[in-house]
Write a sequence for this structure.
């Protein structure tokens, strides 16, 4: 789903990681389960999303953060 959103937005990229290799990071961001999408602004987590719902939902959610 995120790959589709990434392609639709053009100049935008999504990062991913396997939290099994970064348990300290998972703890510091208070990640409760995966998959998880973090919206980070200024080095701080602005929002944590666990339910992705649909591509249109994700697209609108991400566009909201891109608009600032």
């Amino acid at each position: 789903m995120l790959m589709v959103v990434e392609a639709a937005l053009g100049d935008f990229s999504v990062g991913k990681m396997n939290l099994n290799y970064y348990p300290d990071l998972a703890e510091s961001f208070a990640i409760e389960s995966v998959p998880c999408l973090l919206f980070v602004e200024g080095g701080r987590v602005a929002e944590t999303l666990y339910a992705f719902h649909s591509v249109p939902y994700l697209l609108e959610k991400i566009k909201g953060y891109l608009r600032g």
The mean pLDDT is 90. DSSP finds three helices and two strands in the chain.
